[in-house]
Predict the 3D structure of the following.
Amino acid sequence: MAKKVAFLQGNEAAAHGAIYAGCNFFAGYPITPSTEVAEVCSLELPKLGGKFIQMEDEIGAMAAILGASLAGSKVLTATSGPGLSLKQELIGYGCIAEIPCVIYNVMRGGPSTGMPTGPSQSDVMAAKWGTHGDHPAILLVPASVQETYEEIIRAFNLSEKYRTPVMVMPDEIVAHMRERIVFPEPGEIEVVPRKAPTVPPEQYKPYDTSFGDVPPLASYGTGYKFHVTGLNKMQDGFPTTKAEIVQAEEERQVRKVNANVDDIVTFEEYLLDDAEVVVIAYGSTSRSARYAVNAAREQGIKAGMFRIKTFWPFPDKQIKALAGKVKGFVTPEMNLGMCTGEVERCAQGKVPVLGIFRVDGEPINPDQIVAKIKEVK
Amino acid sequence: MEKTLPKIEIIEKYCKGCHICVEFCPTKVLEMKGFVASVKNLEACIKCMQCELRCPDFAIKVITD
Amino acid sequence: MAFDYDKYIRPGKLPHIWCPGCGHGIVMKGLIRAIDSLQLDTKNTAIVSGIGCASRLPGYMDCCTLHTAHGRAAAFATGVKMAKPEMNVILVGGDGDGTAIGGNHFIHACRRNIDMTYIILNNKIYGMTGGQFSPATPTGAKASTTPYGNPDPPFDIAKLAIGAGATFVARGTAYHATQIDKLIAEAIQHKGFSVVEILDDCPTTYGRRNKFKSVIEMMNHLKETSVPVKAAEKMTAEQLQGKVLTGVLYKEEKPEYTTEYAKVIERAQAK
């Protein structure tokens, strides 16, 4: 039987992907350019017995998904720049209390209200550094409608597997463009369930590290009575200020992601085998980059592309390896050098990193990238 | 009929010495002994339970039959 | 017989953190008696709070407890209740947490009439941070941030709840201990969003700055300034000057949110 296909917007694909992943609770607040996610969820979730709620503000939406997740739901919220800023405190809550949830943020111009209908890639640092305190960060940056669908499924899987908030951030171009999408069959893409406790309620501790760095999470209303707080906590969930416990718990929270980068980090290598100049790109910018690499090759330049699919954790290992082989990197992005700084860190001064930065609400076009490729000597 | 007296149990490690039980006891059964409440005159107790109800510290139990 | 509070308190968690004479413990006992009188299943009861002294209450309770971020209790709780409408959801918090930083979530929870009970412990001050004025601090009162007297007018929290659409609103005081459990129990039984404001005392950060010589004086003040709604009906406006009404202030039956959302699901599935 032929697979089901559709012509969808990135935002619509995100909602459908979430539902494939088992999402049964959405809370959001209207914000351009992400509203289609809420609209599709309001239409589709109740058909499946799921819940949609439009909250009074962005913070409330973030709070509602955390509450619903603790009650056993698989949860999603969708927002954009200013909304992401407002959600940040509670994203930190999700990190410290270790509550699985997916935050879909469409990157528009900023800071503040910025350019609500223009594309940008300037929220990638906010994904890692937006909330205060040390915390793990996982950020996926899809580049097509199909990939948005698939990456949001992966985001749900990672959030359950590592018991932490996961962000998916398409730029506004990916979020609003329409492309053909082929829906996977049920079961075709793995859906990771939440690791439920194996001990009886009286023995249950929500942060019991005898089960590893990612302890099982019970749900409210299933017989397990446990305490959740945003304070630094002990394994039983109750607050503590004991130095050694706080240190160990903070380190574990970050380690559960950092020790598993190979499981989390994904990327695409395009014509890298003999590449001398490597364009490092993500999101819609990578589509221009691909065109530019092909154009450069036609002109006899050995160009290639390393496409970032997982922005956080950053693909340090891969880019460090490339830095030892190539003549230089070109880093086009719709911000003033956020990814470029990370690439420079990984390049360790071995090769030049030439950035192309646009924050004018226009995409970076292939000609700009070809011109920059030619600057690499 | 002879009056039966309750047992007033004061959990000293919970008592924070706020005086509420002492002041609002209608028959002046309790007193402060240093920083904690203490039974002074059990005979006067009318088992109204006000001290137990009002103790913010879960430190008083009035045990009746 | 002495009431067995221990049955509902997590072992080893007492003594609590509240200061000597703080009424929060009295309210917690009232909540426990209410839960006991209704025989609520603690495994199926969530107690959700924000940040502040009052918000430490859930940690002591042997229920499903959620100590959220400052002001966000109502929004977290909405998520819990929507996900599991069969759960009893009780919110606990202070006046600052609930009506300043959490004011938006509070009024919208009232508006939705979602079946949860919000117990607001109103001690008219931010206690945990050291006594800054809150939206419930009386005009003229001294707080650590109103050294010349409070220029702000306060909220009437119960009226705010009624205006925002809560369908059960009651007020009690920490002095009137026997009434607290009855108000909370009636609120929990009410189908819809219920608010129980308990006027409370903060001897440490409010009392000492506002000429209350002792905890007892603060408790007596709660007693003297409150009037039961029934009694108030027979009093003149002059007699009611400076008094606050206690008891069940408002009650109405209106469609409840999770029930209405269940109908949304039915309509969606009928298509």
Observations:
- The mean pLDDT of chain C is 98.
- The beta strands of chain C are 45-49, 64-67, 88-94, 117-122, 125-126, 132-133, 168-173, 194-199, 226-228, 244-251.
- The first strand of chain C starts at residue 45 and ends at 49.
- Residues 24-38 of chain C form the longest helix (15 residues).
